[in-house]
Amino acid sequence: MSKRILVVDDSASVRQQVAQALAPEGFEVVEAGDGVAALELLAGAPDIALVLCDVNMPRMNGLDLLEKLHQAGRTAAMPVVMLTTEGQPALLQRARSAGAKGWIVKPFKAPLVLAAIRKLTGG
């Protein structure tokens, strides 16, 4: 059975790039355009193995989503990796404090993303 990865990014092209990198490696990619959509999707999808999330998005940004998941106790069983153009130390620290397991800067290299996901999901 393939592991399900939730990709949360307001850029359809980024979501597509991630899906193109992961699908051939046996991962099923589920997509959300912002944090609100991600929370709605996660409410009905307990089998998500990992969340790959942008920081800057409309409605609810990635750090707010991460903090909500952390408060709900979800990040212990479901790792969250931030995928963003941001590199500010304060944002990295906020993400770490909220339980993020990784921080990958865009533009990303597919092998790097794949390696992080395999390590965190055991896949």
Mean pLDDT: 93
The top-level CATH class is Alpha Beta
Give the overall shape.
globular
CATH topology: Rossmann fold
Helix content estimate: 40-55%
CATH architecture: 3-Layer(aba) Sandwich
Largest sheet: 5 strands, parallel
The DSSP helix count reads 5
Question: Structural class, please?
Answer: alpha/beta
Q: Note poorly predicted spans.
A: none
Q: In sequence order, what are the helices and strands, one letter per element?
A: EHEHEHEHEH
Total strands: 5
Strand content: 15-25%
Report Rg. 13 Å
- What do we call the CATH homologous superfamily? Response regulator
First-last Cα distance: 11 Å
- Strand arrangement across the biggest beta sheet: 2-1-3-4-5
- In total, the number of domains comes to 1
Description of the structure:
The protein has 123 residues and is an alpha/beta fold. The chain has five helices and five strands; from the N terminus they run βαβαβαβαβα. It has helices at 12-22, 35-43, 62-71, 89-97, 110-121; strands spanning 4-8, 28-32, 48-53, 80-84, 102-105. It has a five-stranded parallel β-sheet, with helices on both faces. The protein is globular and about 35 Å long.
Keywords:
5 strands, five-stranded parallel β-sheet, Rossmann fold, alpha/beta, 123 residues
Walk me through the topology.
Layout: E1 4-8, H1 12-22, E2 28-32, H2 35-43, E3 48-53, H3 62-71, E4 80-84, H4 89-97, E5 102-105, H5 110-121
Parallel strand pairs: 1-2, 1-3, 3-4, 4-5
